[in-house]
Each structure stands twice: as C-alpha cells, then as structure tokens.
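REVIEWER CHECKLIST
Item 1: Sequence provided? yes
Item 2: Single chain? yes
Item 3: Sequence as submitted:
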Amino acid sequence: MEIFATGMQNRGMSEAVLLKRIRQLARTGAARMIRVSAGLSLAELGESMDPPVPASTVLRWERGECAPHGARALAYARILKELTQGEDGA
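Item 4: Structure as written out by the authors:
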C-alpha cells in the first residue's frame, strides 16, 4: 500500500496529514485490503485498537460510511501500519 507506507514512514508528518491519509485508506477500500491480507476479522481489528472499537464501526469505516477521528483514527493508523510492515517482512 504505497499511499499508506509513504506517509507513515515520514516521522515528521503532522497529525492532520496522518488523519487525512488514514481516512483516505478507509474510503478507498485499501484499509480493508490490508486487514483481509493479514487474516484479521473486523472484530479482531477493532479489539486490537486502543481504545477498542466495535466491529460494526470498523465495517462502517471500510465502507466509507463514516471516517475515524481523533484517538480512534490514530489507533487505526498504528494497527494498519503494523499490518503493512508485517506484509513487507519488516
């Protein structure tokens, strides 16, 4: 996921830019592809977040019905980053 990896590798990226990118991943379906590739269910991803998020919320993010905000968006970004790093063997 180049759009995700490129933005997340830049440690100097502002929180606002990170939030914009994570919302874009959710809207485009890229976040779902990352989750599915990692073999996680909606519930597993939601439960692994801090704070935890119901599976129905993750589903709405993945469908583009709503977007993560604040601490939830940052937690979602951290999980997706970890999952993409696992795909790359990092």
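Item 5: Key structural point noted by reviewer: The chain has one domain: 2-87.
Item 6: Recommendation: ____
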